[in-house]
Amino acid sequence: MKNIINVTRINQIIAFLNSLKIKSKRFSDIIKKQNAQVIKDFDQALTHSSDDKIINYEKLEFFGDAVLRLAASNFIEKKYPQMNVGERSELRAQIVSDEWLTKLGKKIDIEKVIIKGPKALGDENSKNTIIGEATEALIGAIYKCFNSIQEVNLWLDDIWEEEAEILLKAPYKFKAKSILQEWCQSKGFDLPVYKIIEVSKKNGDPKRFSCNILINGLEESSAFGKSHKQAEKNAAKVLIEKYINTGKF
User: Does residue 65 carry a catalytic annotation?
Assistant: First the structure.
């Protein structure tokens, strides 16, 4: 269990936090001061349980999940006040998803500062999961600096704005199943049938489940996902894109 964080690790954490380019003077100031508790929180957020069973990112990840949802709700309220509750929920689900967190984690290159034990270092299947979880823990640690979502929104709002516009221009990308169902009903077809097969037993494996979609008894598309729900969504996206490209949609 860690008691002291060495200078090399402190400098690594500070350089990483500066690279986030959060537009907040008080965040910049707190980093410059190298507050011991702040450094400990970020070190914890960037430590996997395979390295330390007690001081690791799991608690901050749990905390970060709630912070992320609140910050995303705040963003949607400011940017899209006209949206109804259902639309807000659908959009928020996309901009706080596991896939989005992993994508963000890769963008900020968080993996280079995550401390892992030997088992996790050699596990390629858990790589993306760890990136996403550590990113969520990082968000929790940023909140803890001030007990405020202000810095989280200052960091993420610009990213969310760009991605939300893409999603809203092609709504099937974030509510593919409901749009596919509506399309089938408009054509007088039976509702889509989703057939799931578990092809892997590994948690976090992006190809753990395979989903085939049948329309009127005919198999129309297939895709993978790390959960039933994700595999179904991915297969629905694939099918809609296929129909768009062939002029059926």
Answer: yes
